[in-house]
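Forgive a beginner's question, but might I ask you for the amino acids of a protein and the tokens describing how it folds?
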Amino acid sequence: MEGEKMNKIALMEDDKTVKLSIPRGYYVFAEMSTMADFNVKMMLRDAQSQKVSFEGERQSKDALPPIRGFYQCDYDETELHIHIEEGIDLDLRVDSTDLYDQNEELAVRTVTAVGRDLADDKYNDFMLHLTIMRCSEL
């Protein structure tokens, strides 16, 4: 997956799990925030073993400081799992941008996931921003 641009997001059967392309060995800085009436729990985990590398949970309509985490990815398939109260219809948008070094190898990937319930047209209910970076020779 190294050097592969993540331009399509695969939603799984529950529509709350998204496969992400995070190369093994890269470092991940995660930042999560919410402004919602309902509780939002977001996890970054290994798709195979379900090992959780980042977890954030919050229920607040106030603009609170984000929940942050930092880890090195030590598995091949990462998924973002979002757990929200049942009965809430979601609109989830995910996008990424890749930056390459002088050798055309992936140096940094950013991923932004934003979501809203369908009660209004504001994308402020929850967000997750990832900065994925190569910090040394792999």
About this structure: The chain is about 0% helix and 50% strand. Residues 15 and 90 are 9 Å apart (CA to CA).
